[in-house]
Design goal:
This protein has one domain. The chain is 70% helix and 5% strand. The protein contains 7 helices and 2 strands. The protein has a two-stranded antiparallel ribbon. Strand 1 and strand 2 form a beta hairpin. Helix 4 packs parallel to helix 6. The protein is globular and about 70 Å long.
């Protein structure tokens, strides 16, 4: 068994060989799927909603309520970002159920999302406190804590990205290990068909690809809301 990262495809563009990651290809597939899903749910909207329009309104209402409860009314502008982040994260993990390599099993993906949230937090901090207040925050509560505050600043996006990546990638590896172990067991028992692989890998896949995907997407978005909401606290005061 060989556990590898995402594959790369070589594409010739005007005589230049460009390598495209498998993650990027899967990402565009997810973007196309989410776009088609949104267009389907919001097509021909009426005052008296249809079933699919009701689903779209329920999703928007749920996201708005979650952002309002977590971040406050002042931060409602972040609702579209949080909804996009959740959907991209969710479907980026669920694609494993249809045989594609999960986007979130590539650390580049979760690190990019974490950095987006990180820069939003810094922008909110600067907007709320000004450059002087932002820099002064590194010296609180006492000046000698400045090095630790700077280190903790950069630890947050790394921790946020590794948590999501580690759970999805770890689940993928565990499922693969169990599958190959059961395949070896079937061979050892002299079975021409790997009957031992029936059932257990599917149960693990449901847990890691479905339950873990939903939980990690929710946790990632909740932490992003908490970080950004906390950065705007002083402005609200």
């Amino acid at each position: 068994m060989n556990v590898q990262g995402p594959h790369y495809f070589t594409v010739d563009i005007l005589g230049l060989e460009v390598k495209i990651s498998e993650t990027i290809v899967v990402g565009w597939i997810i973007i196309a799927f989410i776009t088609a899903l949104i267009l389907f749910l919001t097509h021909n909207m009426q005052k008296i909603p249809s079933k699919r329009q009701s689903i779209a309104e329920l999703i928007v209402t749920t996201v708005n309520k979650l952002v309002l409860d977590t971040m406050g009314k002042r931060n409602m502008a972040f609702a579209p970002y949080m909804a996009t982040l959740f959907m991209f994260s969710l479907f980026g993990s669920l694609v494993g159920l249809v045989g594609l390599r999960p986007m979130t099993a590539d650390y580049n993906t979760t690190l990019t999302w974490a950095l987006l949230t990180f820069f939003m937090v810094q922008a909110c901090n600067i907007k709320a406190n000004g450059i002087g207040g932002y820099l002064k925050g590194f010296t609180e509560p006492v000046v000698f804590m400045t090095p630790l505050n700077i280190v903790s600043l950069f630890v947050s996006p790394i921790s946020l990205s590794f948590r999501h990546f580690g759970n999805i990638a770890g689940g993928m590896v565990i499922t693969m290990l169990v599958y190959f172990a059961l395949t070896g067991l079937s061979t050892a028992l002299g079975l021409s068909v790997p009957l031992a692989t029936i059932g257990i890998p599917a149960v693990l896949s449901v847990y890691f690809d479905l339950f873990s995907a939903v939980m990690q997407a929710f946790i990632f978005v909740m932490l992003s809301m908490v970080y950004i909401g906390s950065a705007n606290e002083s402005e609200e005061e």
